[in-house]
Design goal:
alpha/beta, Alpha-Beta Plaits, TIM Barrel, 14 strands, 57% helix, 13% strand, binds ligand C2E, binds calcium ion
Length: 652
């Protein structure tokens, strides 16, 4: 398999094994480096041997006075000197190479290794021929061949050709020009010839084995290296590479101001649901291509999900963002409304990490959600407070859960018919010793964006169940509580399983818990949600549809999923009284629910008029400030005890 998972032909495989094809830069560099390292050892060994040979010569010939002049000494030992010089030069070369100084000039390493090869072969042949005439010894030649081939394995195709060429030439020279001390021609015997050829073959196999092993290593680490710097879905750089490149870019453009950009595809989830995983992927890839086109000289990357990042000069950045957005909008001809929102963060002198800078930009972009009139937002001092709360939330959610900073507030829900209390909605509050009171608007979207919402919800469910059990044990009046579920809860945890475990642990009758899922969380064909909703129903929980009418796909949701109750969003009551259409719409939603055999609840009930109207129109339950804000459990209990709230005899 190649790195893209495709099958290779046999020919290609053989070619790869003998190093016939040109390798990509990464693999070539890896092999060259491995080669240089073995060259270093080889050259070291050669240098030591040659020094030894020179000492031996001095010991045997110079000291006993057999060598008369210095000139004679050098004439007799010239091959040792040549080889020693070559080895020392190779040693210096590989040392410098390994330290990273001459990697920029790969041709130089060819030249060096080539020179070493030629010197070694020359020496090998000359000594080999002399040795042969002395006693049919060719070990010097064979050893030299070993040296050079081991240092030349990065493309064994070439080294094998060279080895066979020089090996054959050596055989030819021996057969035609070799003479003994008396000048008579000498030939290689059959046995020696066979040994010699076998040696060449063994060496070829050795070279191939070493090469192939190194080649596999190189390819493997190439794939790994690519994976760690490339985003798998789109093939464009990932954030790791972005950070590296950003630092280099900033250094190179230190004289100019730069901006970090974070792009966010608005409505990507709906698109993904509509066109499936592969359709969504195609869109992400397309954005990758657009980024490459619009930021050819600058670093860019996929940040994750539907978010991308880039870095460019501050001058003219708005124009470039506009051009990118236009190109994006132009190629999207589908039915789903999409937009590209961009957050901008000006890098300051006190340089934050690229990742942090992009995160600031991302925060600015996140504030553009659902603002159809704007697509650029720059991070400025005004956003700093929100950003720091966001960071605080992300850094402290676990602590908040553990230390009990997360509390549950209960908002009463009344029967429209008699105004008696039939349950409460559990709403999260974060009461922090440092930051004070945090409202869900400050932490729920952040936790959802960063996929941490399940940590909070798990805590809310447990707090509610524990509370109900305590009340039951204390013999107090209890009422059903509805729990909010995020779409992500079903992805990030086994939501049904977790709730079931709590119900068992605290022995809570299941009809005391309602599951609320907001309309915007639901889209067509969401197998995960279908499965979870079916499981909730099967276990005996009532499932409520929250915020009905607030999103784009209300009707589809009703068509695709089964709910026990429809919770009409508070937007319809916003201008109640001024706008006669509100009444008509609410009435028809109530009729629709009745025809689908669903119960109803209207949220955001603030006035007596709204109560009267909803009661007459046949809405089942009401919730809103008219009856009470979200409050502590004890307050609800006290109000029940004091008679301010009358707990209904009918709770389902
Ligand atoms: P929601 O589920 O639609 O909750 C109703 C929100 O409307 C609550 O805001 C409530 O305080 C507010 N509200 C109730 N009656 C009235 C009224 O008469 N007038 C007005 N103007 N507002 C009213 P809150 O508590 O700030 O929660 C906001 C949103 O945060 C919730 O909207 C819900 O989507 C989310 N949320 C709250 N608690 C949790 C939780 O524990 N888990 C999850 N996943 N989401 C939660
Ligand atoms: Ca709710
Ligand atoms: Ca709601």
């Amino acid at each position: 398999m190649d790195e893209h998972g495709g099958k290779k032909s046999i020919l290609r495989k053989i070619g790869d094994a003998i190093g016939f094809y040109r390798n990509n830069a990464y693999v070539a560099e890896h092999l060259r480096e491995a080669d240089v390292r073995s060259t270093r050892y080889m050259a070291g060994v050669v240098a030591v041997i040659e020094l030894g040979m020179l000492l031996r010569y001095v010991w045997r010939w110079v000291l006993p006075g057999k060598c008369e002049t210095v000139a004679d000494f050098f004439t007799y030992t010239q091959s040792y000197w040549i080889l020693l010089t070559a080895a020392l030069l190779m040693l210096i070369y590989s040392e410098v190479y390994v330290r990273g100084k001459i990697r920029r000039f790969p041709r130089l390493s060819w030249l060096w290794t080539g020179c070493f090869f030629l010197v070694a072969i020359y020496f090998g042949i000359m000594t080999g021929l002399t040795d042969f005439s002395k006693g049919k010894m060719i070990t010097a030649f064979l050893t030299m061949m070993l040296f050079v081939t081991v240092t030349l394995v990065w493309r064994p195709f070439t080294s094998i050709l060279l080895m066979l060429g020089f090996g054959g030439a050596f055989l030819f020279l021996i057969d035609h020009y070799s003479v003994d001390r008396d000048g008579n021609p000498i030939r290689m015997g059959e046995g020696d010839r066979l040994n010699y050829i076998t040696f060449l073959i063994s060496m070829t196999v050795l070279v191939l084995t070493v090469y192939y092993q190194r080649y596999r290593e190189a390819v493997k680490s190439d794939i790994l290296a690519k994976k760690t710097i490339t985003d798998e879905r789109t093939g464009i750089p990932n954030m790791h590479r972005f950070c590296e490149e950003s630092k280099a870019f900033q250094e190179a453009h230190a004289d100019r101001e730069q901006v970090f950009l974070s792009f966010n595809v608005e409505n990507f989830r709906t698109y993904n649901d509509r066109y499936g995983y592969s359709g969504g992927n195609e869109l992400l890839k397309k954005i990758g291509e657009l980024l490459a086109e619009h930021f050819p000289e600058e670093p860019y990357a996929r940040q994750g999900d539907d978010k991308f990042a880039a870095l460019c000069d501050a001058e003219g950045h708005e124009e470039r963002i506009r051009a990118l957005r236009e190109a994006f909008l132009a190629q999207n001809t589908g039915e789903i409304y999409l937009d590209l929102k961009t957050g901008v963060y000006r890098s300051s002198k006190v340089e934050p990490e690229p990742r942090l800078a992009v995160d600031h930009a991302r925060y600015a972009a996140s504030l553009l959600k659902n603002h159809n009139d704007r697509y650029i937002r720059e991070y400025d001092q005004k956003l700093a407070e929100g950003y720091s709360i966001r960071q605080y939330v992300l850094n402290n959610i676990e602590k908040a859960v553990k230390e009990g900073y997360i509390q549950v507030y209960y908002q009463p829900v009344m029967w429209a018919s008699d105004g008696e209390l039939c349950g409460c909605e559990a709403l999260a509050r974060w009461i922090d010793p440092e930051e004070g009171f945090l409202s869900p608007g400050q932490f729920i979207p952040v936790l959802e964006e960063c996929r941490q919402i399940h940590k909070l919800d798990r805590c809310i469910y447990e707090t509610v169940c524990r509370r109900l059990r305590e009340s039951m044990d204390a013999g107090e009046a209890v009422f059903p509580v509805s729990l909010n579920f995020s779409r992500l809860d079903f992805e990030l945890m086994d939501a049904v399983g977790e709730l079931e475990a709590l119900v068992e642990k605290y022995r809570i009758p299941r009809h005391y818990l309602h599951v609320e899922i907001t309309e915007s969380a639901l889209s067509e064909n969401d197998a995960l949600l279908h499965e979870a909703l079916d499981a909730f129903h099967e276990k005996g929980y009532a499932v409520w549809l929250d915020d009905f009418g607030s999103g784009y796909s209300s009707m589809n949701v009703l068509k695709d999923y089964r709910f026990d109750l429809l919770k009409i969003d508070m937007v319809f009551l916003k201008n109640f009284g001024d706008n006669p259409n509100s009444e008509r719409i609410i009435k028809s939603i109530l009729e629709l629910a009745a025809s689908l055999d669903m119960k109803t609840l209207t949220e955001g009930v603030e006035t007596k008029e709204a109560v009267e109207f909803l009661k007459k129109a046949g809405c089942g339950r009401l919730q809103g400030y008219f009856y009470g804000k979200p409050q502590k459990y004890e307050e609800i209990r006290d109000r029940i005890e004091s008679g301010e709230y009358k707990l209904s005899g009918q709770l389902i």
